[in-house]
Write a structure and sequence with these properties.
Helix content of chain A: over 70%
Radius of gyration of chain B: 24 Å
Distance between the termini of chain A: 55 Å
Oligomer: heterodimer
Shape of chain A: rod-shaped
Mean pLDDT of chain B: 91
Number of helices of chain B: 7
Distance between the termini of chain B: 48 Å
Number of strands of chain B: 0
Structural class of chain B: mainly alpha
Structural class of chain A: mainly alpha
Largest interface: A-B, 25 and 35 residues
């Protein structure tokens, strides 16, 4: 397989991995913010 | 009783996660490519740590579930829940990255070999664990049901791990942890260890924030269940039929 094609697959994999990590971390942050609001901002 | 003495707005866990991700990326891009797979071998440095964190997460879920059943402390239930959710995430990530690596090296996205199939089953069983937790708002009942499942479901971890030894699979057997030692170049072993360590630190930071979330969500649930506001019809007073005597 051509090296450029190999790099495309590698970057695709890392894009999926880091994209998913950012989304998951963001979901935790958003849910914390929403839960704090529901609790009335007392925490 | 839910206490919230920790500051859920703390920023340092996010910074730790970002640094851990950066360390993995730099290490994975710096190491020499594999002699056979070439650049494609770099996918290993995120695929293997993701699979490791799946094992670790479900192991922690099992331990925390057992501790809940012993101590009946909801803090252990929150740890089990948090670790299970992170484990489901990393199992899904390991499967996704394995599919990308598989397509680029084997030529197929998926094959029904023992490792892949058992990993998919493990993913769906722990999704079931998360779904089970949503079947009731009773904190103690929820924790008890989830703890039993959290203890039992961990049997899948050794099944997944040893599947490549017990059955003939397209997935390769272990390359690092084996009796005769690693059959990889030392530079690749070191890079893999760095990425596994970085991802483990990332897991710890994620757990910190996810447990914060679980504590606040439990506090919300308790506040809603102990809401002492007026109930419908509460203002209606029964007539006095005693005749004034």
């Amino acid at each position: 397989m051509d090296i450029a094609v190999q790099w495309n697959w590698v970057m695709f994999g890392y894009g999926v991995a880091y994209g998913a990590l950012v989304l998951f971390a963001t979901s935790i942050a958003v849910r914390i913010t929403r839960a704090q609001k529901r609790l009335g901002g007392t925490v | 009783m839910t206490t919230l003495e920790r500051n859920p707005s703390s920023v340092w866990p996010w910074i730790v996660m970002a640094v851990a991700g950066l360390v993995t990326f730099v290490a994975a891009m710096s190491v020499s490519p594999d002699a056979v797979q070439g650049q494609l071998s770099r996918i290993m440095y995120v695929h293997v740590p993701s699979a490791w964190l799946a094992y670790l997460s479900f192991g922690v879920t099992m331990f925390a579930s057992a501790m809940y059943l012993w101590k009946r402390d909801l803090a252990w239930d929150r740890r089990a829940h948090s670790s299970a959710e992170i484990g489901v995430f990393f199992t899904g990530l390991a499967i996704s990255l394995g599919m990308i690596w598989g397509k680029s090296t084997w030529g197929v996205w998926w094959t029904w070999d023992a490792r892949l199939t058992l990993t998919a089953i493990m993913f769906f069983v722990y999704l079931g664990y998360l779904a089970l937790r949503r079947t009731t708002d009773d904190l103690d009942a929820r924790a008890k049901r989830a703890a039993v499942m959290g203890v039992l479901a961990v049997i899948q971890v050794p099944l997944v791990h040893f599947s490549v030894i017990w059955w003939q699979t397209l997935h390769q057997p272990p390359s690092i942890i084996k009796p005769e030692g690693p059959d990889m170049d030392p530079s690749m072993v070191v890079t893999l260890l760095i990425s596994v360590l970085s991802f483990t630190v990332m897991y710890a930071a994620m757990m910190y924030k996810r447990i914060d979330l679980a504590r606040i969500e439990d506090a919300v649930l308790i506040a809603e269940q102990t809401n002492t506001g007026p109930a419908a019809g509460e203002a209606v007073v029964a007539p006095d039929l005693s005749g004034g005597s």
